[in-house]
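Contributing new records

If you add data, match the layout below exactly. Sequence lines come first and carry their own label; structure lines follow with theirs. Keep one chain per record. Anything else will be rejected by the validation script.
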Amino acid sequence: MSRISLQSLGCKLNQAEIDSLAHRLAGRGHLLTESADEADIYILNTCTVTHIADRKSRQLLRGARRRSPEALIVAVGCYAQRDPRGLERSGVADLALCNDQKDRLPEIVECLRRPRDGDVTDPRSSWQRRTRSMVKIQEGCSQFCSFCVVPHVRGTERSLSLDDILQDVRDRLAAGHKEIVLTGTNIGQYTWNGHGSRGLAELVQRILGETDVTRLRLSSLRPHDLTRELISLWSDERLCPHLHIPLQSGSESTLRRMKRPYSLADYARAVHSVRDSIPDLALTTDVMVGFPGESDREFEEGYRFCERMDFAGIHVFPYSARPGTAASVMPGQIEDGAKKERVRKMLALAQQSAQRFRRQFLGQTMNVLWESKSSGTTWDGLTANYIRVSAGSSGDLSNRLLPVKLMAEKGHAILGENIEGGYIQHG
């Protein structure tokens, strides 16, 4: 039995893969530890979506090496896929595995490292501690947007078996998880042809109908993924009223250069459709600024479009050239100073629209899934529509779904007040 520390950087798909790996390692008798200091083996699921993600991947690997010099340092994921030999030659990682080798990780690490002697605790405990669990349903993308390295490192679209996903969900629920998040590179393209073509709507319907999931959440979807059949499933209150629909740019001409598979009109229609159909919906998005050739006018167009959409949350990030992508060699590369200023402006808009969204729910009572204690007796949790709530309690609220009255703003969160039994105090 080895002590293994797992860490994930980047997208929800990476976290889903780490969750699945944790389950498999625990099942083989290994101890999962949150601290790299105590680990025989440290595994990082890396990210390469931007140059910053590359840097963070290297920093985390080097940090693990410093904290545990005798540990086997393993890099997997998209950065490892892009430059496996470079990571090994530089000594940043002892072993770098490509994405198609991830499934064999338990067998590979067991061949390479014998465990330390010593007492161990229940190996399942770390995996079971999370309230939310990411379940991978699909991997890969065939879109090849001009800025995106993901198809190069994740490959083309392929889906997991519907039956395997259902079993994975049941396993997570049996371990105590209250919320399941379906994730992948491009989950709207989920299809399983084992017994006739089956898409995302059927998968969601089967999970709701054949498991006792308390909350089910979907990760990123594109406008054309939101079919009437899929939208109708939100009549089941267990399906969280939260949709993340990446926009990338609110300028039509920039979208075309990005080779995104929708127009602004397509996007706006999808937004109106889901808002009309799903009560209390939180709509979040991604916006990239400083894409090659983005003029001041195009940035302003994007800003105004985001203003009209009034998102509940915007992940704003500057364009980062990725090797091998079409955008990396486009003319009109934007200077870093201009990117930073555009990020600042878009972040200010994002904060304003997020605040407007949260304020709609002040005074209402909503169910909160409590995740962790942030300090002292203060607990943090999430509503189904992704509002972060803080409240005080001397009891253990971890992984409990409880009704809470939303009372007042506190930074980017809302303070909750006692509803059941008086043990949740006003924060």
